[in-house]
Branched-chain amino acid ABC transporter permease
Amino acid sequence: MKKMTISKTAKNNAITYGMVIVAFIIVQILLATGHVSSLMKGLLVPLCIYIIMAVSLNLTVGILGELSLGHAGFMCVGAFASSFFSVCMKDTMTNAGLRFFLALLIGAAAAAVAGIIVGIPVLRLRGDYLAIVTLAFGEIIKNVVNVIYLGRDSAGFHVSMKNSMELNMLEDGKVIINGAQGITGTPNNSTFVIGFVLILITLFIVLNLIHSRSGRAIMAIRDNRIAAESIGINITKYKLMAFTISASLAGVAGVLYSHNLSTLTATQKNFGYNQSIMILVFVVLGGIGNIRGSVIAAVILTLLPELLRGLNNYRMLIYAIVLIAMMIFNWSPAIIDFRKRHSFRQMFGKKKTAKEVQ
């Protein structure tokens, strides 16, 4: 029975990886043949960002079972930490590939540290309380970044919370973080290929964690906290582990986001409450705990508004209908039962023997 479970897990993981790889190959062929519009080309990197965000949030919401509404805050931390590093090292580190790789590590580490700092007090809460506190964290991060003025001259770094004039820099000084105006001059190193590689890495980390001993402990905490604690599972350790990994992956998405723009600002649209809710919508519609579903939902709900842009008067109506249809398909008990009874395996696969059922 154990061998069958491992085989099924490997098959599901292979399907997920294969789906992403096939989609990447198809897009590359379309790009090579010139069948992709400039608008759709501009959506390829954001698409990768949303997939990484949805998969990482599903680790917290679906696998850990905790509702987080501040996921965009961790993305903001990773974006600004990496962008700050890249701008500072742009002149001294000429190797763009190495610089971007280090920026990825710095963004992921900064978001992970933020996840630990937030997670230690927050994960003691449950349900709505945890959601409210994580929501507050996301808003705090965004507003703190908007009041930071940071510059550098030959004497070192200067920080102010008032305005850039208060930095008191020398003539060779340069403002790096300019309050609400953000950071300008970040190298545009993000590409669709890099985004695809980061998606595979994210899937590898999350899927392997889920099917590991730690993942089973995390899901045991989700299903029954008291029972998990009674058999010796360290609740705080595993909850903090899942929350930190999820935050770190959101930081990676932030790095990809910041290096796709010439100017990075911490606005409500980019890193605010609406961004966190949109990522949560991807997770819910794709299926809570369903990693493959998060990938599919992120792709569909990112591309759909642009594909329907020609139907300007009916675009949002069709978008809303698709959202409702996906919700019914994923969560309606009658539809779920119908899918089980009429699945491909049931119709075309061999029937299980009594021994296999047992």
Notes: The two ends are 9 Å apart (CA to CA).
